[in-house]
Amino acid sequence: QGQLMESGGGLVQAGGSLRLSCTGSASILSFDSMSWYRQCPGKQRELVADIRGGGSTNYSDSVKGRFAASRDKAANMFYLHMNKVQPEDSAVYYCNAVLKTLERTIDFWGQGTQVTVSS
């Protein structure tokens, strides 16, 4: 069904912007939901934002109002638009997609992309 691949990470100054991209070998429309997670060293992976099949979005309190998740169906891309970034946003960001079948729920993950915010 698919592999996911993130891109767009890098070094950005506090207050700046960055856009992360995620694409897959399958159509993004085939997934029930797509999400962005992030993980800092020594901490658990946390949900940052997600988009459900109907297009509704959900954000963690720490990024609400600064980050936005979107999909480009024609390009088969899933994005995380990061604005007004802060040093605490530094993490490895992962793209996740969920596919639900009658028998089970399948999670797909990308390899992660590093975001570093300098103060």
Helices and strands in order:
Layout: E1 4-7, E2 10-13, E3 18-24, E4 33-39, E5 46-52, E6 57-59, E7 67-72, E8 77-82, E9 91-100, E10 105-109, E11 113-118
Parallel strand pairs: 2-11
Antiparallel strand pairs: 1-3, 3-8, 4-5, 4-9, 5-6, 7-8, 9-10, 9-11
Describe what this molecule looks like in 3D.
The chain is mainly β. Helices cover 0% and strands 55% of the residues. The protein is built from no helices and eleven strands. It has strands at 4-7, 10-13, 18-24, 33-39, 46-52, 57-59, 67-72, 77-82, 91-100, 105-109, 113-118. Strands 2, 4, 5, 6, 9, 10 and 11 form a seven-stranded mixed beta sheet that branches. A four-stranded antiparallel beta sheet has the order 1-3-8-7, with no helix packed on it. The chain is globular and about 45 Å long. The N and C termini lie far apart (40 Å).
